[in-house]
Design brief:
This protein has about 180 residues and is of the alpha/beta class. The chain is built from five helices and seven strands, in the order αβββαβαβαββα. A five-stranded mixed sheet has the order 5-4-3-6-7, with helices on one face. Strands 1-2 form a two-stranded antiparallel ribbon. Helix 2 (about 75-95) runs parallel beside helix 5.
């Protein structure tokens, strides 16, 4: 009896860890705001952070583009599972008006983040989560937390936890009208 309970507990914990690191297992898409018809650019979420090359970046730098902002870290298994999807999506849609921006928490330090990016062959912009990112996007309930922004700077969708590539691809295609 003890072995079956232990096995059940292990399966339960594994399922939770594959959904989101340090999260509440929310796992469903949230339509935080949808107003793609808004003509003026929404600066409510206009965070500023540094990219890994030490240059400054603001969300509004990508006006007119569909932007995915992925909050992640090197130690997070679901984050590691999503990153190859983002590499592929950026390769396919970057010339169609899509920007991919990864923001790492960097809990294992900057050298670990840089090494991870090189090891995984990450081809899209990356920086670090800072106070301004948290102030504008909110404290994530778990990672990965991924925001899909429309061309006007509005949150189109927010995802907590791992998602298949097809989920993000559908959002990109819908917003780019492809």
């Amino acid at each position: 009896m003890k072995k079956s309970r232990m096995l059940g507990l292990i399966v339960f914990i594994s399922a939770i860890s594959l959904t989101a690191c340090s999260g509440n297992g929310e796992g469903r898409a949230q339509d935080a705001e949808k107003s793609a018809t808004q003509a003026e650019y929404n600066t409510k979420y206009n965070f500023m952070t540094k990219l890994l090359d030490n240059s400054d970046v603001r969300l509004e730098d990508f006006r007119g583009k569909v932007v995915i902002v992925d909050l992640w870290d090197t130690w997070c298994p679901p984050c590691r599972m999503e990153i190859p999807h983002f590499i592929e999506l950026y390769s396919v849609y970057k010339d169609a008006g899509f920007i991919m921006l990864g923001l790492a928490f960097g809990q294992e330090g900057m050298p670990a983040v840089l090494s991870f990016i090189q090891e995984y062959g990450i081809n899209y912009l990356n920086g670090l989560v800072n106070e301004d990112v948290i102030a504008k996007l909110g404290q994530p309930q778990g990672i990965p937390t991924t925001f899909v922004f429309d061309q006007n700077g509005n949150i189109y969708k927010k995802y907590v936890g791992y998602r298949e590539k097809s989920v993000f691809e559908a959002d990109i295609k819908s917003l780019l009208k492809l």
